[in-house]
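Field reference: "sequence" (input) and "structure" (output). Example, Serine hydrolase domain-containing protein:
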Amino acid sequence: MKTALIFCLILFTLPACSQNTDQIASIFLDYHGENPGAAVAIIHDSNIIYHESFGMADREKQLSVQSTTNFRLPSISKQFTATAILILEKKNLLKLDWTLDKLFDNFPEYGNTMQIQHLLNHTSGIWDYEDFVPDNGPQVSDADVLEIIKNQPHVYFEAGSQFRYSNSAYALLALIVEKYSGQKFQDFLKNEIFDPLEMKNSVAFVPGYNEVLNRAFGYSQEKGEWIKKDQSSTSAVLGDGGIYSNVPDLFLWDRALHEGKILPRETIERTFSKSKLNNGHEILYGLGWHLKEYEGEKVVYHTGSTTSFRNIFYRIPSKKLSIIILTNRNKPEEENMVDLAERVLMKFQDMDK
């Protein structure tokens, strides 16, 4: 394998490596040059064995994507929100079977059966807050999401009876973290996860409160042109997708998952295990992670999609193999990011033969 590429990322301070002609780079030809870019990495056995950066982080300022460029993660953030809840559980500050009527004042009656664990595995049935927020409206916060949910007299289904992916659930989880930790959500992540792991560039971004260094800005393609479109009315909600990070920091996070640095290994295994509905049927979601198989091996992954970012963090724990793809553009569609990661995986397998 390309040992020079290992040092390129481990040193973290170097610009992106320049092997633009390798097999993996050929997958990302559309990300080169003046186009919005990508940072791509493969981690194997706690080593970064491949990394390349392509295209522009800021087209207006002609700033290219580097190894230390920070991208908005969108829903990849959910694994950190879930971890925050599990840290509080470990500290005996909350229990996952607590119901929402006990957690939030004046919560609708359906909160009597809706538990924290239902929020974590997307079986709560609560309404999607995005349906009540106009695309061109003012930005809403996690607290605003709570008020939106309180004003909905019904749910999609009885808690625990079905799976329906819910950003609303993770906004409420961020508020639960704040209530039972006594810290702002962004501070709790910093103090309990990012700082202990030396993830110095990762941040749950709150304008005016903290900042994102070396930031990639988002772009959407409209009528063949790339338009800077970095934020939306939902971009200020933290629990479901408000974290920025980069490849070096996610490498540290990946290693912590293998080594059990923040949570015990048995707890991490819970996050990677299929959840069960009330009838015993298993669903392909754990606690902050989607689940699937690739060539007979368990895959845990999460995509992240918002206005102009498309990302994926794809892991095969049994092989200690992970793929990170971070981009600042609105293509491809989120559901196609798994295929993109597996194209990278197949090229890696070919190179490793």
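The first strand starts at residue 38 and ends at 44.
Residues 1-21 have pLDDT under 50 and may be disordered.
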